[in-house]
Amino acid sequence: MKKSIYGLTFDQLTDWLIENGQKKYRAVQVWDWLYKKRVTQFSDMKNINGDCVELLEANFVIQSLEQAVKQESEDGTIKFLFKMQDGNLIETVLMKFPYGHSVCVTTQVGCNIGCSFCASGLLKKSRDLNSGEIVEQIMNVQHHLDLKGNDDRVSHIVVMGIGEPFDNYDNLMNFLRVVNDQKGLMIGARHITVSTSGLTPKIRDFANENIQVNLAVSLHAPNNELRTRIMKINRAYPIEKLMDAIDYYLETTNRRITFEYILLNDVNDHVAEAEQLAKLLYNKRHLSYVNLIPYNPVDEHDQYTRSEPENIKKFYETLRKRNIVCGVRMEQGTDIDAACGQLRSKQIKKEKAL
Ligand code: SAH
Ligand code: SF4
Which residues form the active site (predicted)? Predict the structure, then answer.
């Protein structure tokens, strides 16, 4: 199977072109066609000579994803379901905010972490996405915006779709370098957030990368007993280890970290847990932001329901009183199966039923 051209960083493409007898400046031209003019066929790259176009066509594809479903929500959120060349389905979501257009990308087909509340973890990982397939999600959404003709650009990215990005680290990093590159899409690193369930060795590696991308950690519980109950990954990487890695990240980068905390009714949403969470984060509160997320119900996980609004308020106020900076995530696209993995798992069930 031919590889997606979007998977190559600028330097990798330059090296490849030189190895294949092409001039170095071709890389600038090809990237300009791909990311500025955004053509979808090599033959549309007008100033590239025929030999080079043939060479590219023989080795790469530009479009490897096929749009299978597009659901538009009343609030403007659009959920895309793409079929990859091997038939696997992935989800990408476009959300409109006052500050711009944000895209949520998928990094793996399924997820092996298997958190007890999550729709993505229902299906075991069948493979990692390569970096081209991750970049192409952004490009497809950008093409969708281009067709509307309003000059809109994908300005923000959240790596919060299906999969654990740090379990596909090298492809993730390649993806980040491609979309961030000044010669390409130029999506600012500070506008990109990667979310992890807490693979501590990779949090350390990420701290050492020379890139200003934001990190979010799915914490969801302030003690090991509770966290292990809802996220089995906590057995391998318990809270003490996680906090050590986070301290290393904060010392190394001096960048703010986001802690995600899903509020599950009568599970982790009591004032006692808010107090414990405040204590856990107190010594790093100047570089912490807690994102309280109202749970998005998943049919298969009916042991969980969303917290009551007054409990969400109490939780929030308890954190605020203890000087922990926090907010409650506004919801988007709940009418279109917005929780990560929901659309995909429903589509797969539908296909199986046929
Ligand atoms: N695997 C990574 C990134 C993908 S999940 C991670 O777990 O961080 C992105 C975020 O969505 C995580 O914080 C995850 O816990 C949360 N999430 C998963 N299922 C959810 C649901 N049903 N409702 C609300 N948030 C959910
Ligand atoms: Fe995987 Fe994240 Fe879902 Fe957990 S929450 S199963 S890590 S996608």
Answer: 91 (proton acceptor), 340 (s-methylcysteine intermediate)
pLDDT by residue (tens digit) across 305-340? 999 999 999 999 999 999 999 999 866 655 555 555
Q: Which helix (H) or strand (E) element contains residue 12?
A: helix 10-19
**In this predicted structure, what is the pLDDT of residue 331?**
63
Catalytic site includes residue 326? no
Is 74 considered catalytic here?
no
Ligand 2: distance of its center to the CA of 168 in Å?
13
Q: According to the model, what pLDDT value does residue 122 have? A: 77
Global confidence as pTM = 0.94
Give 210: exposed, middle or buried? Use CB within 10 Å, 0-12, 13-18, 19+.
Answer: exposed
Q: What number does the ligand 2 atom closest to the CA of 195 have?
A: 2
Q: Is the beta carbon of 114 within 6 A of some atom in ligand 2?
A: yes
pLDDT value at position 48?
95
Contacts of 149 (CB under 8 A, 6+ apart): none
Q: What are the start-end ranges of the E strands in 125-246?
A: 127-128, 154-159, 192-196, 214-218
User: What average pLDDT score do residues 248-269 get?
Assistant: 97
Q: Are strands 66-72 and 3-4 parallel, antiparallel or unpaired?
A: unpaired
